[in-house]
UniProtKB/TrEMBL annotation, chain A:
Subcellular compartments: Cell membrane
GO MF annotations in UniProt: transmembrane transporter activity
Membrane-related topology note: Multi-pass membrane protein
Protein name: Iron complex transport system permease protein
Leader sequence segment: none
Domain of life: Bacteria
The UniProt record lists the keyword Cell membrane: yes
Regions crossing the membrane: 12-35, 74-93, 105-123, 129-148, 160-181, 201-227, 248-275, 287-308, 320-339
UniProt GO BP: siderophore-iron import into cell
Family listed: Belongs to the binding-protein-dependent transport system permease family. FecCD subfamily.
Source species of the chain: Asanoa ferruginea
From TrEMBL, chain B:
InterPro entries the UniProt entry points to: ABC_BtuC-like (IPR037294), ABC_transptr_permease_BtuC (IPR000522)
Protein's name in the database: Iron complex transport system permease protein
Source species of the chain: Asanoa ferruginea
GO MF term list: transmembrane transporter activity
GO cellular component annotations of the record: plasma membrane
Annotated TM spans: 31-55, 87-105, 117-135, 141-160, 172-195, 260-288, 294-316, 328-347
GO annotation terms (biological process): siderophore-iron import into cell
Keywords: Cell membrane, Membrane, Transmembrane, Transmembrane helix, Transport
């Protein structure tokens, strides 16, 4: 933490803008791969023809490309970006490298509501689970924030962490209690809780896209506030920041982003936790850069994992949550081992 | 020290050294009182666990039967053969989880850094789930696999995180990576399993204190007898580590050695606990914070945290087996028992949180 800026930092700052453009290019390439590759082997020319027509002419290649792969890819981009950004914001607000939406009760809230829909209301199907999961995620986050806000200090990082843990544990207890006594619910939940982009068709995409786009746009305005918080609360106050308001705004953005993402695809772990750290390796501590970098890095990671899961076990698929753990986690560990870390 | 303090006294006109001494005395007294209170609570829960059930037995009868003072064949059978193992396993697992949880949180200086977080329980879970789903094993084999998985993943993490010593932040990140890797594999195995095996696996992953066999329990108790005092002995260097590595070195702590010894202690404790009862969530995470809240200024005691863990687990097991309409695995209830108490603590706490 020296006061003088080493020249390397200045060089890095100059390279960040072009780097962002390059990442856009990478994302475009990965998205193209996601449309052209899949568990069904369709020739490149067929895919391009379908994309060129842009209307489903009833042929298998056209239907798969336009009805399945394009929505899936767009959803992957949006959900990935949302999870990455939500992770950055939560880590910044709680100043904790371990924070992500999962720890703040999002996944357990979503799971609890999904299980409720299955057991009590007897509903089935991904299209139904979406809205229950969304509601559950938002309710859990509101609960966590409200609990952490008790007492004199308001929602301090430690209290947020503990409140998140408590709400997660309480909800998970209820969920597993129901699942242990209900075979149907267990069977549905074991597939929902892995997290996947498969079987999420166009209606789900159009359902959650507005929330995701809104949240992503709002998140870009949080960079300066997060930079202030990173200096410590007293300094941030000294700079004229309203800490409580910052936290509340950040939490609202996270609720929309992570809630909609989890609702659409189930609890996708790892992306929200790890991408912020990758972005920090690249950008250093400035959140005004970390946010857009995460917004691009996260969908790249997610889509790559998804493509890999589709082509690795043809004609079957491996869920993206599994691929993220098995392939991306070791890569992340390697990066952590050899990178110079900048702390949260 | 006293010389400078007495100079200060004359300057300020206040007995500073005396006040410091009084402060220290107050802290020690509170710490002793809290520890004693928790011990009494744990003992009471331990006895109650053996009293209730389809066949009710009085407290005195239970105690005398356990201590082999009475001679009533029926009571002795129920208490010693049926209920003592479960109660003992809840006690031992709770102590181990509470102690290891608080050691992790203090070493890594992060309130979220419970052993569940960093791959150890994930390793145990993966090994056990593979055992259940692929090998269709049961009982002792599963416990052995879980123990092996926990220790293997702990070693893997330690090796991966080692680069001229262990930095807390790097260890946490590597732990996240390892945990995600193992959980991914576990999820994959679960989606490929038949429903029957998947149910069994989910049951194991929830964790229960009633599934322990004698062998594992003996291992765990032996581990506790050796490791808990060791952990308390290692607390002094741990206290210095809390000030940060540089300050600790200045105070003459051999940071790397203490950290390795402490981490090793916590790892073995949690590995043994998981092999006995499965990965019971939440206890390791909140035992430390709850104990600290009770201790006030004298935070960070390993023994109080261990006792809180034991109290949580014993209470959870009572609820899981006797209060609910159908007996459920203990892990289902730990969160439901611990969460309200933690929320109350949070609601009444006024201390400023310092981010990890």
């Amino acid at each position: 933490m020296s006061a003088a800026r080493p020249p390397a930092t200045a060089r890095r700052a100059a390279a960040l803008g072009p780097g962002l453009v390059a990442l856009c290019g990478v994302l475009a390439v990965v998205a193209f791969l996601s449309v052209t590759l899949g568990s069904r082997d369709i020739g490149l020319s067929e895919v391009l023809r379908a994309l060129g027509n842009w209307t489903d002419d009833g042929s298998i290649s056209s239907t798969v490309t336009l009805q399945l792969r394009v929505p899936r890819t767009l959803l992957g981009i949006l959900v990935g970006a949302a999870l990455g950004v939500a992770g950055v914001i939560l880590q910044g607000v709680t100043r904790n490298p371990l924070a992500d939406a999962g720890i703040m009760g999002i996944n357990s809230g979503a799971a609890a509501f999904v299980v409720f829909a299955i057991t009590v209301l007897g509903l089935r199907g991904v299209g139904v689970y979406v809205w229950f999961a969304f509601a559950g995620a938002i309710v859990a986050l509101i609960l966590v924030y409200a609990i952490a806000s008790f007492g004199r200090e308001g929602a301090t990082p430690v209290k947020l962490a503990l409140a998140g843990a408590a709400v997660t544990a309480g909800l998970a207890s209820i969920t597993s209690g129901i699942v242990m006594t209900n075979v149907d619910a267990l069977n549905e939940l074991r597939f929902w809780q892995v997290g996947s982009l498969a079987g999420r068709y166009a209606p789900i995409l159009t359902g959650v896209a507005p929330f995701l786009l809104l949240g992503l746009a709002a998140s870009l305005g949080l960079g300066r506030a997060l930079n202030g918080l990173a200096l410590g609360e007293d300094v941030a106050r000294g700079l004229g920041q309203h800490i409580g308001r910052t936290r509340l705004a950040a939490f609202a953005v996270v609720a929309v982003l992570a809630g909609a993402a989890t609702a659409a695809c189930g609890p996708i772990v790892f992306v929200g936790l790890v991408v912020p750290h990758l972005a920090r390796f690249i950008c250093g501590p400035d959140y005004r850069w970390i946010l857009p970098y995460s917004m691009l890095l996260a969908p790249i990671v997610l889509l790559l994992a998804d493509v890999l899961g589709r082509v690795a076990a043809r004609p079957d698929e491996v869920q993206v949550g599994v691929v993220l753990g098995v392939v991306c986690a070791p890569a992340f560990v390697a990066i952590v081992r050899y990178a110079r870390l900048s702390e949260v | 020290m006293t010389a400078t303090l007495s100079t200060v006294d004359t300057l300020v006109g206040v007995d500073v050294a005396g006040r410091l001494r009084a402060n220290r005395r107050r802290r020690a007294a509170r710490s002793a009182a809290v520890t004693l209170g928790l011990a009494v609570l744990v003992f009471a829960l331990f006895v109650v666990t053996m009293m209730v059930g389809s066949f009710r037995i009085g407290a005195l009868e239970v105690v005398s039967s356990v201590l082999h003072l009475s001679d009533n064949a029926g009571v002795d059978f129920v208490v010693r053969e049926l209920r003592l193992p479960t109660a003992f396993s809840a006690l031992a697992v709770g102590l181990a989880l509470g102690a290891s949880g608080t050691i992790f949180q203090q070493l890594l200086r992060n309130p979220l850094a419970s052993p569940d977080f960093v791959g150890i329980t994930s390793g145990a879970g993966l090994a056990a789930v593979v055992g259940i789903v692929v090998l269709q094993a049961g009982g002792l084999v599963i416990s052995g696999l879980a123990l092996g998985g926990a220790i293997a993943s702990a070693l893997l993490m330690y090796v991966l995180a080692w680069r001229d010593g262990i930095s807390g932040y790097r260890f946490i990140l590597i732990g996240i990576g390892v945990a995600a890797f193992l959980d991914g594999l576990t999820g994959f195995v679960l989606t490929r399993a038949q429903l029957f095996e998947a149910r069994q696996a989910m049951h194991w992953l929830t964790g229960s204190v009633g599934q322990a066999s004698d062998v594992e329990l003996r291992l765990l108790v032996g581990g506790l007898i050796v490791l808990l005092p060791l952990a308390v002995l290692l607390q002094r260097p741990l206290r210095a580590l809390e000030l940060g590595d540089d300050s600790a070195r200045t105070l003459g702590t051999r940071t790397e050695l203490s950290r390795a010894a402490l981490l090793g202690t916590a790892l073995v404790l949690v590995a043994l606990a998981v092999s006995v009862a499965g990965p019971i969530v939440f206890v390791a995470l909140v035992a430390g914070p709850i104990a600290n809240r009770l201790l006030g200024a004298a935070t960070g005691g390993i023994v109080p945290a261990a006792l809180v863990g034991a109290a949580l687990l014993l209470a959870a097991d009572l609820v899981a087996v006797h209060v609910l309409p159908t007996p459920l695995p203990t892990g289902v209830v730990t969160g439901a028992v611990g969460a309200p108490y933690l929320l109350w603590l949070l609601a009444t706490t006024n201390r400023q949180g310092a981010g990890g």
